[in-house]
Design goal:
The protein has a two-stranded antiparallel ribbon. It has a two-stranded antiparallel sheet with strand order 3-4. A two-stranded antiparallel ribbon has the order 5-6. It is built from four helices and six strands. The protein is an alpha+beta fold. About 5% of the residues have low confidence.
Length: about 120
């Protein structure tokens, strides 16, 4: 995930999977630690998302992080290289994006994830 960044920006030790996992784990929503920032929600072993209840201060008001992130922009959309005006969405990736949006909405409303995690 971080291997594309230059060493001057992200040192090699911080690119290792163990380091990244430790950062995610120590900042989980349900972890009891005085230094925990509750930034991530663990869905299953090794699968994390940004905390759906995380809010940030923007222009004088608290805004939910997923209202600020354009989830639709994260969807994979492929263009036909022969005709740049033709738009061909990848159906499987769009289904995954819709699944993720449903999951985030459920978690924001305080429900446990009723949808199976498959991404």
């Amino acid at each position: 995930m971080l291997h594309h960044f230059p060493a001057a920006l992200v040192p090699a030790r911080r690119k290792q999977r163990a380091y990244i996992s430790s950062i995610l784990a120590k900042n989980e929503v349900h972890r009891d630690d005085p230094y925990n920032r509750k930034l991530f929600r663990r869905l299953k072993h090794g699968h994390y998302i940004i905390n759906p209840k995380l809010a940030v201060w923007v222009e004088g008001a608290w805004r939910n992080i997923y209202d600020l992130l354009s989830l639709d922009a994260l969807g994979y959309q492929r263009q036909d290289m022969r005709d740049f005006d033709v738009f061909d969405p990848n159906v499987f990736m769009q289904q995954q994006l819709q699944h993720f949006k449903t999951l985030v909405t459920q978690l924001q409303e305080g429900e446990e994830a009723a949808v199976e995690v498959y991404f």
